[in-house]
Specification:
The protein is an alpha/beta fold. The chain is built from nine helices and 14 strands.
């Protein structure tokens, strides 16, 4: 288990992380989310001991994180930390050697992961000669090649197309099912929803929302209703509780204040012609994120 307890960090007069606490447990993928400057990267750097915290405690399986256990950690920073004059193989050998892996194990793992991520043919190419997406794959391999106990990923899907995002997500799920604690950050909420179990949203270094993803979505008051049928926007006029209406060809997406208004919407349109769909949906994580962050900034 990773435990972050009452951790704070200040840069001059700016409180970058404010009394932050959370845990990442077995077989759990944890999302640390927030707008730019919210304190995510500072938190990651404190966890891996690249940055000294001002207060609080951070432990991995009950032990303080120091050089005695850093070989058990994989870290993919948001900014690329690649030596562009090296070949792909040389770069991966360098990182794996720093993690204390044997030469034989390094070569086997390099071959396996290059094939798994479909970049085997780039093995002897210099990093400066390959695309940004493939550079990101190399950096991803460098973070997992030692099969870490704790894996921290800061914007891991940068420059990747949907196919390769899905490929990385499958790999992260495999690691989580085994023995790796996964904590990551991404600005793409639809990617977070693909595989995140629990999340925490930071605003100006302070927690504004935390919990299991599905529970957060279930508890969020605003709901959406997806309606398909032969109706017009005038049919919704005067119905209490409707916050917004999005019209698409032959269908409408209504946002309502909470689920107590579902019945009134249904009874207002149930006798209209050709109603083929009336589905109540939880809001997307992106909608919740925008609403939560917006409410904090407006206070």
């Amino acid at each position: 288990m990773l435990k972050v307890e009452h951790v704070s960090k200040k840069y001059d007069d700016i409180l970058a992380v404010n009394d932050l606490s959370f845990t990442v447990e077995e077989h759990e993928i944890f999302g640390l989310l927030g707008v730019n400057g919210a304190g995510k990267t500072t938190t990651f750097r404190m966890i891996v001991n690249l940055l000294e915290k001002d207060s609080g405690d951070i432990t991995l399986d009950g032990h303080k994180i120091d050089y005695s256990i850093t070989d058990k950690i994989g870290f993919l920073p948001e900014e690329r930390s690649l030596l562009l004059k090296l070949t792909v193989k040389e770069q991966l050998m360098y990182y794996a050697t720093l993690k204390g892996m044997s030469h034989k194990d390094i070569l086997e793992k390099i071959d396996y992961w290059l094939k798994r991520l479909h970049i085997w043919e780039l093995k002897d190419k210099k990093l400066k000669e390959i695309s940004k997406g493939n550079q990101q794959k190399v950096q991803f391999i460098s973070s997992i090649i030692n099969e870490p106990r704790l894996l921290i990923l800061d914007e891991p899907f940068t420059s990747l197309d949907p196919f390769n995002v899905s490929l990385l997500v499958d790999i992260l799920k495999e690691f989580s099912r085994k023995n790796t604690l996964v904590i990551f950050s991404s600005h793409r909420m639809e990617q977070v929803e693909m595989f995140c179990d629990k999340l925490l949203i930071l605003v100006e270094g302070k927690t504004v929302l935390e919990g299991k993803l599905q529970e957060i979505k279930n508890q969020y008051r605003k709901k959406k209703i997806h309606i398909t049928g032969d109706i017009t926007i005038e049919d919704f006029q005067g119905i209490e509780g409707i916050l917004s209406i999005e019209k698409r060809p032959d269908e409408y997406y209504l946002t309502i204040a909470d689920d107590s208004y579902i019945s009134s919407v249904f009874h207002a349109i149930k006798d209209k012609n050709n109603i083929t769909q009336f589905v109540v949906e939880n809001p997307s994580l992106n909608e919740i994120f925008v609403s939560i962050v917006g409410d904090v900034y407006e206070d």
